[in-house]
Amino acid sequence: MTFTLRAEETDTGPGTLDGRTVTAYLARIGARRPARPTAEALAELHERHVMAVPFENVDFHLRKPMDIGAGAIEKIVTRRRGGTCYELNGAFSELLRALGYDVTVLAGRVIEHGVPGPVLGHMLLRVVAADSPYPWLVDVGYGRGARRPLRFDSSEPQADPHGVFRLAGGAPYGDLDLLRDEVPQYRIEARPRTVEDFTHMWWWYCNFPGSPHLTHLYCTLPTPTGRVTLSGDTLSVREAGRREKRVLAGDEEVRAAYRTWFGLELDELPPPPAPLEP
Predict the structure, then answer these.
(1) What letter does residue 119 receive in the DSSP assignment?
(2) What's a Pfam family this protein contains (predicted)?
(3) Which of 59, 139, 175, 177 is catalytic?
(4) CB 235 within 8 A of CB 248
(5) How many CB atoms within 10 Å of residue 92?
(6) 85: annotated active-site residue
(7) I need a labelling partner for 73 at 20 to 30 A (CA). Which of 54, 93, 103, 161 fits?
(8) What span, in angstroms and rounded, lies between the C-alpha atoms of 235 and 258?
(9) Active-site residue, from 122, 175, 177, 219
(10) Any idea what DSSP says for residue 83?
């Protein structure tokens, strides 16, 4: 099972990052520059990105300017911050192209309680390596995603440190559903996209009062055997099947948690999300 994309439909132009930016990006995720754009190197880059760069939405609540795609690299690399899917996958797509991978941007609809959300609500990537005859699903910007790339051409279960994933057909218009432990996560469009296609949804996420990035505050990162999440002043640590949750005492302890667990140095702490109007 795979997508059929015409060459003229793909967003696979040559990488535009200069060598210094590529080197800095690789250092940010603790990865070496691969000699060739192979599937093995892709798996290492993906895993290191997922494990090093948090999925976080702090700047939404600080009302700071943000950008997506290549425009997010300065935030992720220079300021050593995290981001959401448009930022993380958009930036990662630029790094992969600069390293010689064939990258296509795709859109997804996050599924909550069995219902797909807005069109273009999620960004992910389809990547082809130089030594691989099949494409890979690459997603470093989803809090419940896989640690390593998933094969796009298979409907068989794929074991990953973060769960068992499966791509299921049967959705309308030839779309695919990604399942984790048999729970639907998001629906993937069959057609290719560009980062610019997501601009209007980015505005919605940043400005609409009911946007999930404005009604929730989170910073989360997987660990080798679990996950750590900071939501406001509540720190949740899950390790080896055990979960601990505690409320932090004051701003300095919250700042220390951002620094210790996620490597984030924040001059200003985000305020709690405003309650939704009934």
Answers:
(1) T
(2) Acetyltransf_2
(3) 139
(4) yes
(5) 27
(6) yes
(7) 161
(8) 10
(9) 122
(10) B
Is 122 annotated as catalytic?
A: yes
Q: List the alpha helices (DSSP H) in the chain.
A: 19-29, 39-52, 58-62, 73, 85-98, 199-207, 212-215, 251-262
CB atoms within 10 A of CB 161: 13
Cβ contacts of residue 231 below 8 Å, gap of 6+? 216, 217, 218, 219
The CA distances from residue 96 to 26, 38, 199, in Å, are 11, 11, 21
Using alpha carbons, list the distances in angstroms from residue 93 to 33, 50, 119: 15, 14, 20
User: What's the rounded Cα separation, in Å, for the pair 225 and 25?
Assistant: 25
Phi, psi torsion values for 48, nearest 5 degrees: -65, -35
Strand duo 242-247 + 176-180: pairing: unpaired
Query: Out of 85, 175, 177, 219, which one is annotated catalytic?
Result: 85
Q: What is the pLDDT along the chain (278 residues), one digit of tens a residue?
A: 433 333 333 343 445 799 999 999 999 999 999 999 999 999 999 999 999 999 999 999 999 999 999 999 999 999 999 999 999 999 999 999 999 999 999 999 999 999 999 999 999 999 999 999 899 999 999 999 999 999 999 999 999 999 999 999 999 999 999 999 999 999 999 999 999 999 999 999 999 999 999 999 999 999 999 999 999 999 999 998 899 999 999 999 999 999 999 999 999 999 988 766 65
Q: How far apart are CA 132 and CA 150, in angstroms?
A: 13
The verdict on whether 113 is a catalytic residue reads no
